[in-house]
Amino acid sequence: MVESGLEGRRSVEFGPGAVTGAIGDSITVIPLVVALALLTDASLPHALAAFGAFQIVWGVRYGLPVSVEPMKALAALAIAGALTYAELALAGVVLGVVLLAIGRTGTLGYVERWIGEPVVRGVQFAVGLVLLETGLGLAVADPPVALAGVAVAGAVALAGHGKASALAVAGVGVATALVVAGVPSPRLPGAPPTPAFGAALTRAAFDGAVAQLAMTIGNAALATSLLFSDLLDAEVAPDELSTSMGVTNLIAVPLGGVPMCHGCDGVAGKYAFGARTGGANVVLGAGYLVAALFATPALIAAFPLAMLGALLAVVAVSLARNVTDSDNCALSVGIGLLAVATNLGVAFLVGIVVHLAWGRIGG
Description:
Layout: E1 6-7, H1 16-39, H2 44-62, E2 69-70, H3 72-79, H4 85-105, H5 108-115, H6 117-139, H7 143-158, H8 165-181, H9 203-232, E3 235-236, H10 238-252, E4 260-261, H11 264-272, H12 279-294, H13 297-301, H14 305-320, H15 329-341, H16 344-362
Antiparallel strand pairs: 1-3, 2-4
């Protein structure tokens, strides 16, 4: 039987830290969700509504500033055009089933031993390279606008807020879109998109799902659990986090949301901006729900694509630099380069084989 792992749960409190802390998770969410809405058939209003709902649900459930963010490997592949929206959605549902099963059976630790930390870092590096390639491709269409985005990111970083640089670029892009399209009237999202799951049963969807599983187990479950203990002295079992991610995707994706997970970077971001309880989740969730009312197609279409390129480049660098923390940097870099040369799923599977062989030789 799986223990709930909710020792040290806190009450939801609303102080200044709840408001500032809400910014910390949006650093990860907004750039990728905007990119998905601009470059795929994902619906921004439905995605924001799903993020809003589950920010609130898990903030109240755990009483902690838990992160709810896009599944980055799947998002990167969809943004790069390697996955269709239907393949993205199907992979999210499949991972929902897998994560729920892993969490309820308490087998996450066993799966993690097969994957290994260098493989997780390698997938992160690969995702960064995929996003960087896509970002540069968009930026060259209008270099002055892209350079303006880079300048904004650089100014924010020099001011000592490097982690918020991507969010700042997204904010400038949204402001530009508002100037061009005007402030839209609020409206409900309407019926969610209906992806053709039958046509999405492809090798690309499978490869994306298995690669994402590595990041989800390593970054969203195990590392997040450890970070809660280190920062907040709260014990949240990795299997509990796996269960909540499974539930999230099985509900949200069929209703138009994009595949979602927890993440240690989002928790660290919230904590750095002052969040200490789930109050930050409630504040951020309410903000997403309000934003979903204004995310009209005209506003989305007015977002400058070259600035989106700069935005993706900033996110890419943030992800790729995690490779320096790898226990086996050579292997992690090799996985990333192989992913660019072939695809992320192949690189992930080869990485596991090499990691296990390396460990056997070294042991």
